[in-house]
Amino acid sequence: MLKNIVLILFFASVFHGGDLYAQDSLYHDLPKTWNLKDCIDYAKKNNISVNSLKLSSKTAEQSLIAAKAAKYPNLSANVTQDVSHYNSGTQSSSGYGVSSGITLFNGGYLNNDIKSKTLSEQVANLSVSTAENDITLQITQAYLNILLSKENITYLNDLLSTSNALVKQGTQRLTAGTIAKKDLLQLQATMANDNYTLITAQNQLQQNVLTLKQLLQLPTRIAFDVVAADTTKVNEHLIDLASAQDQALRTRPEVKGAELNVQLQNTELEKARATIRPVLSLNGSLGSGYNSTSFGSYPNQLNNTFNQALGLTLSIPIFDRKITKTNVAKANIEIQQARLSLLDTKTTLTQSVEKAYLNVQNANSQYQAAKEQFNYTSEALRIAEAELKLGSSSIVDYLQQKNLYVQALQAFVQAKYTANLYTKIYDFYTGVPITE
Questions:
Q1: Contact 194, 156 (CB under 8 A)
Q2: Measured between alpha carbons, how far is 165 from 294 in angstroms, rounded to an integer?
Q3: pTM
Q4: Concatenated DSSP letters of 39-93
Q5: DSSP string of 373-389?
Q6: What is the pLDDT of residues 392-423, one digit of tens each?
Q7: Contact at 8 Å (CB) between 405 and 381?
Q8: Residue whose C-alpha is closest to residue 350's, from 257, 235, 247
Q9: Is residue 15 packed enough to be buried (19+ CB in 10 Å), middle (13-18) or exposed (0-12)?
Q10: How far, in Å, CA of 245 to CA of 247, rounded?
């Protein structure tokens, strides 16, 4: 009986868990610990929004192939078989033919359509690059937030260890009668507060890890952690703002895409104008047939009725119910819209670069000030701890100094990673890739 139950559970897990196993196999080769480059590369390859834009780019590529093929001659074959019944009897007939045609001139429509589809493909590819840039910045910020939390936890662990040691020493001194009960309670309250702060930081770390994991779109069950090494680098030598803005305008994909879109809309205007121009095409055909009421055998009739045709067709539009006129007007509106979009893209980008420049300058200044403050308060806390152990300082004085140290610690860690983040963002706008 037990054996049957085990078999049932096994097959249930196979059938109902098969999809889950297949999904897990997709993530089998993923690293357990990720660095920043791993995260960015993975997102560029697997992000759903990015891949959706890549598929749109492939669609644009197929449209370009079709536009180029429209200049080639077509070729089609046809076979007919008819049976007709009359009062005088029944007759049958059959026909066979091959026909082909090619457009010789259509007012430049086909050439402009190829140009339009080429530009559309380029715009689609640039949209992919823009999406990759956006996800890169999001992942960088989320990754650095994790490093910030990890470093903060390291410092808080040290604080908790120190508090624990002081409580043990205070307990011994209370037994010896050298401190009052309230002094020990203050030390114990401080240790409890340090523990609470540490737990809060650990919870924030889990939240930051979850944020990055969700940006990577990894399933919940996949183990995930990041390299804990301190990769923060504060760059004090920045490219000047004007050069950075110029570099961004020349290299950023969103600007290139907006510029190509203006060209695309101008090409669409030429396509709209081409529809009112004459179209010249060359057509040819080969054919033969058989009729049961005609004289001659089947092969003889096919031979006798074999025909060839070659001709030119000139189609001249005269009145199209203002379709071309309205399409031209719409195309001109789209050109104006594309130009406004280009201007808006450039304006937004230059403002973003300027904001990043101010952010990194302010962050670097705050980092230097916070670093100096942290160094001073660290040394002051070390002296206060030594004096407290020797009994030459009160617990109140020590706790005041410790509060100053904690504030300086949090400001220093936050300022360091903020300066690093803003530096990476500013450099990224100028074309410097984010790799660590």
A1: yes
A2: 117
A3: 0.84
A4: HHHHHHHH-HHHHHHHHHHHHHHHHHHHHHHTTSPEEEEEEEEEEEEETTEEEEE
A5: HHHHHHHHHHHHHHHHH
A6: 778 888 888 888 998 999 899 999 999 989 99
A7: yes
A8: 247
A9: exposed
A10: 5
Which run of H or of E encompasses 162? helix 109-176
Q: Which helix (H) or strand (E) holds 176?
A: helix 109-176
For tokens 């997102």, name the residue.
43
Query: Which residues touch 78 (CB under 8 Å, ≥6 apart)?
Result: 95, 96, 97, 98, 99
Q: What's the N-to-C CA distance of the chain in angstroms? A: 58
H-state helical runs in 216-307 = 241-251, 253-274, 298-304
Rg of the chain over Cα atoms, rounded to whole angstroms, equals 38
Which residue type, as a one-letter code, is found at position 319?
F
What tens digit of pLDDT does each residue of 275-297 get?
Answer: 999 999 999 999 999 998 888 88
Using pLDDT thresholds of 50, 70 and 90, give the confidence band for residue 12.
Answer: very low
Residue 329, both tokens: 């007007």
Interstrand relation of 225-226 and 33-34 (parallel, antiparallel or unpaired): parallel
Please tell me the predicted confidence (pLDDT) of residue 394: 80
Side-chain half-sphere exposure of 78, counting CA atoms within 13 A: 12
Please state, in angstroms and rounded to a whole number, the distance separating the CA atoms of residues 110 and 121.
Answer: 16
**Euclidean distance between CA atoms 113 and 115, whole angstroms:** 5
Q: Which helix (H) or strand (E) holds 401?
A: helix 395-429
In the predicted structure, residue 3 carries a pLDDT above the cut 60: no
Among residues 190, 191, 88, 212, which one has the least CA distance to residue 143? 212
Residue at token pair 């196999």:
25
Residue type, 61: E
**CA angle, corner 382, sides to 378 and 387, nearest 5?**
145
Q: Using alpha carbons, list the distances in angstroms from residue 329 to 341, 373, 413.
A: 18, 65, 58
In the predicted structure, residue 350 carries a pLDDT above the cut 90: yes
- The residue with tokens 């060359």 is 282
Q: Would you state the structure tokens that stand for residue 418, as one six-digit string?
A: 């903020």
Cα 307 to Cα 187, 290, 310, 313: the distances in Å are 110, 13, 10, 19
From residue 183, give the alpha-carbon distance in Å to each of 166, 175, 385, 390, 402: 11, 13, 14, 15, 15
Whether the Cβ atoms of residue 61 and residue 121 lie closer than 8 Å to each other: yes
pLDDT value at residue 84: 87
